[in-house]
């Protein structure tokens, strides 16, 4: 008689074998069904809501009855400290380094935007107006923390040590681009800096971030000596309309994952203004709905963003881990990307008004000048030397050859499949047939890289 194979355990059982029990045990307040049910309780005692008082007059809650969530500032747009409890925790040199990072990205942005217009790179996205969100948050994270970006956070890369050559190699998709030219420009990534590679489909990074945070949590449970780490996940308010946003915040809340969600609310998702994107009080109000500690900050105030992230990191590591949401209010000063002309959907005067009223770089500069660690001369010197450095890295990267053409067939399968081998042969025949149509010498190994190995 044939023996019946034993069925593998269902996945939940499997998980229990792999994960220490504490990792899957819900925290007490969530375990509603085990809360003892007092007779005549004045509160809802259904498993789905815990502390809701019974009322005997019917009323619907209206969003407009609740005040908008406040926005935290440490320093106002004149560079003056407005939070009486705020104590800067960085030396002059350290603040100047952060300022330098912001300035570098803004100067690189101008040069690379123009380079795209000249046809020297295919695409670019600037961070103008949002440099403080990136630098302020990144500066409050640890090197070991894991980061997921959207795409307008180049200053996160810069703050963590990405060099101008690293930026340029990716933008020009040359032989030193770790992505081997397979991604669009601006889709950077860095294993060394613990920053996952940017991907174009909006919000996909968010559930990935929750998953990574869950993994970190479990790692620490298995090895309490492991350094405490959190995940930081950046996204725009437009991306928060994706279903992935919900999946990410909800799983992070219910599984208590140490992840800081950092929303850059810059007023636009390409041509869609925020106020057409949602009807609620920004993204911050949603954090509360998920049961997540949340703060809204002035994204043009580097100090406020940094202070909020410092605290958020602390919170994220408390009680075995939990998510935190930061909504940084800011303004997208430039076009969405080089493929966009924002004056088709917003007035020039709106942009000019914003630029005049507030800017994260000039705000920090005012603070530094008032403190006496910065002046006009230093500003000029810094701008000149950054410009020189950007142009140097630019021309070095532009001159370099592209990765071998063969690379576009590799790295998916360990060995090329017969189909891929055929396609490679077809491409080689095509390039050899029309040599004047393609500049194959620009690629390492020329057309010969397609020869069978
Ligand atoms: C799933 C998906 N839908 C649409 C797009 C096209 N798209 C790219 S960026 C963008 C706007 C995103 O806006 P937001 O998240 O606010 O970021 P911002 O550009 O303002 O920094 C859209 C709609 C996309 N990349 N992926
Ligand atoms: Mg936006």
From TrEMBL:
<feature type="domain" description="Dehydrogenase E1 component">
    <location>
        <begin position="102"/>
        <end position="405"/>
    </location>
</feature>
<dbReference type="InterPro" id="IPR050771">
    <property type="entry name" value="Alpha-ketoacid_DH_E1_comp"/>
</dbReference>
<dbReference type="GO" id="GO:0003863">
    <property type="term" value="F:branched-chain 2-oxo acid dehydrogenase activity"/>
</dbReference>
<comment type="function">
    <text>The branched-chain alpha-keto dehydrogenase complex catalyzes the overall conversion of alpha-keto acids to acyl-CoA and CO(2). It contains multiple copies of three enzymatic components: branched-chain alpha-keto acid decarboxylase (E1), lipoamide acyltransferase (E2) and lipoamide dehydrogenase (E3).</text>
</comment>
<protein>
    <recommendedName>
        <fullName>2-oxoisovalerate dehydrogenase subunit alpha</fullName>
        <ecNumber>1.2.4.4</ecNumber>
    </recommendedName>
</protein>
<dbReference type="InterPro" id="IPR029061">
    <property type="entry name" value="THDP-binding"/>
</dbReference>
<keyword id="KW-0479">Metal-binding</keyword>
<dbReference type="InterPro" id="IPR001017">
    <property type="entry name" value="DH_E1"/>
</dbReference>
<keyword id="KW-0630">Potassium</keyword>
<comment type="similarity">
    <text>Belongs to the BCKDHA family.</text>
</comment>
<dbReference type="GO" id="GO:0009083">
    <property type="term" value="P:branched-chain amino acid catabolic process"/>
</dbReference>
<keyword id="KW-0809">Transit peptide</keyword>
<keyword id="KW-0560">Oxidoreductase</keyword>
<dbReference type="GO" id="GO:0005759">
    <property type="term" value="C:mitochondrial matrix"/>
</dbReference>
<keyword id="KW-0786">Thiamine pyrophosphate</keyword>
<dbReference type="Pfam" id="PF00676">
    <property type="entry name" value="E1_dh"/>
</dbReference>
<dbReference type="GO" id="GO:0046872">
    <property type="term" value="F:metal ion binding"/>
</dbReference>
<keyword id="KW-0496">Mitochondrion</keyword>
């Amino acid at each position: 008689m044939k023996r019946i194979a034993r069925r593998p355990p269902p996945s939940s059982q499997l998980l229990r074998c792999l994960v220490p029990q504490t990792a899957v045990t819900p925290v007490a307040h969530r375990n509603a069904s085990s809360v003892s049910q007092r007779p005549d309780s004045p509160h809802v005692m259904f498993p789905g809501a815990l502390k809701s008082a019974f009322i005997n007059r019917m009323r619907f809650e209206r969003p407009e009855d609740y005040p908008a969530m406040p926005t935290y500032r440490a320093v106002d747009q004149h560079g003056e400290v407005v939070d009486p409890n705020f104590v800067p925790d960085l030396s002059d040199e350290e603040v100047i380094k952060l300022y330098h990072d912001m300035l570098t990205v803004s100067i690189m942005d101008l040069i690379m935007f123009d380079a795209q217009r000249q046809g020297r790179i295919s695409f670019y996205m600037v961070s103008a107006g949002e440099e403080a969100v990136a630098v302020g948050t990144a500066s409050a994270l640890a090197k070991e923390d894991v980061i997921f970006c959207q795409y307008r956070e180049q200053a996160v890369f810069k703050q963590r040590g990405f060099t101008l050559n690293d930026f340029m190699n990716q933008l020009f998709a040359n032989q030193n681009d770790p992505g081997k030219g397979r991604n669009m420009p601006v889709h950077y990534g860095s294993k060394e800096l613990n920053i996952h590679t940017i991907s174009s489909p909006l919000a996909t990074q968010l559930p990935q971030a929750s998953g990574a945070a869950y993994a970190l949590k479990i790692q620490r449970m298995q090895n309490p000596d492991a350094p405490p780490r959190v995940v930081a996940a950046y996204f725009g308010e437009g991306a928060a309309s994706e279903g992935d946003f919900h999946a990410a915040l909800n799983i992070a809340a219910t599984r208590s994952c140490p992840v800081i969600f950092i929303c850059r609310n810059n007023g636009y998702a390409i041509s869609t203004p925020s106020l057409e994107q949602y009807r609620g009080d920004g993204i911050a109000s949603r954090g509360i709905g998920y049961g997540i500690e949340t703060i809204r900050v002035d994204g043009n105030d580097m100090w406020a963003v940094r202070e909020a992230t410092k605290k958020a990191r602390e919170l994220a590591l408390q009680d075995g881990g939990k998510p935190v949401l930061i909504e940084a209010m800011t303004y997208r000063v430039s076009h969405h990307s080089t493929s966009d002309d924002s004056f088709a959907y917003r007035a020039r005067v709106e942009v000019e008004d914003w630029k005049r009223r507030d800017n994260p770089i000039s705000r920090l500069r005012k603070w530094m000048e008032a403190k006496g660690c910065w002046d006009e001369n230093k500003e000029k010197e810094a701008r000149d030397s950054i410009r020189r450095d950007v142009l140097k890295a630019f021309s070095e990267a532009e001159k370099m050859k592209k990765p071998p053409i063969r690379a576009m067939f590799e790295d998916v399968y360990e060995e090329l499949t017969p189909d891929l081998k055929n396609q490679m042969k077809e491409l080689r025949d095509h390039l050899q047939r029309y040599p004047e149509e393609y500049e194959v010498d620009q690629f390492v190994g020329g057309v010969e890289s397609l020869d069978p190995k």
